[in-house]
Amino acid sequence: MTEVQLERYVDCPFSVAEGRIVDYLKLAAAGGPEAVMRVPLLGASLSLSKLVDLSFEQGRDETEPGRSHLESAIVWKSGTRLLPHFSGSIRTRIAAPGTRLLIAGQYSPPLGLLGGIFDVLIGRHIARATLRDLGNRLARSLEAREAA
Predict the structure, then answer these.
(1) Domain CATH for 98
(2) pLDDT at 38 exceeding the cut of 90
(3) CB 36 within 8 A of CB 45
(4) pLDDT at 68 exceeding the cut of 80
(5) pTM for the whole structure
(6) Residue 123 has what pLDDT?
(7) Are 93 and 99 in contact (CB under 8 A)?
(8) Phi, psi torsion values for 69, nearest 5 degrees
(9) What pLDDT sits at residue 45?
(10) What percent of the chain is predicted at pLDDT more than 70?
(11) Residues of the domain holding 66
(12) Is the peptide bond before 97 cis (omega within 30 degrees of 0)?
């Protein structure tokens, strides 16, 4: 298993961030454009886009002491043997006046030993870039709703 994680500040109040994340994930689970995972290959100049089967469920965030709040457990399946399935979570933290967005998860490289070698050489970089793209799109969605 390869683990990846992302932390990003979002200009959206913590008090509404969790609900807006759920709204975004509902659209993704319904197969909307939010379910398209972009795999940057050469920075912004070339990328591969893949509609994934995304599912999520809400649960208690047990990783932080103090006031209880929620996290979203997410799973996306690529629908192909060439790309890995991903499972992880989206958590939020207070970062007044906004919110810290934490996305973490893991995947198993496909294609056995060959996939493992690819993962060490290039795949982990692609996975981190894909997670960064997801975090950026989620952040833009939250910030746009806040601005509206």
Answers:
(1) 3.30.530.20
(2) no
(3) no
(4) no
(5) 0.86
(6) 86
(7) yes
(8) -145, 180
(9) 60
(10) 95
(11) 2-147
(12) yes
Q: Are 29 and 54 in contact (CB under 8 A)?
A: yes
What pLDDT digit, counting tens, does each position of 41-50 carry? 665 566 678 8
C-alpha to C-alpha distance for 76 and 98, rounded to whole angstroms: 27
* Cα–Cα nearest to 12, from 88, 135, 74, 101: 101
Three-state DSSP at 22 gives helix
In angstroms, what CA-CA distances link 81 with 24, 97, 115? Answer: 27, 43, 10
Question: SS3 for the chain, per residue?
Answer: CEEEEEEEEECCCHHHHHHHHHHHHHHHHCCCHHHEEEEECECECCEEEEECEEEEEEEECCCCCCCCCEEEEEEEECCCCCCCCEEEEEEEEEECCEEEEEEEEEECCCCHHHHHHHHHHHHHHHHHHHHHHHHHHHHHHHHHHHHC
Quick one: tokens of 143? 């910030």
**Confidence label for 103 from pLDDT (cuts 50, 70 and 90):** very high
pLDDT of res. 37 = 85
Residue of 38 and 76 predicted with greater confidence: 76
120 φ/ψ angles, rounded to the nearest 5 degrees: -65, -40
Number of domains in the chain: 1
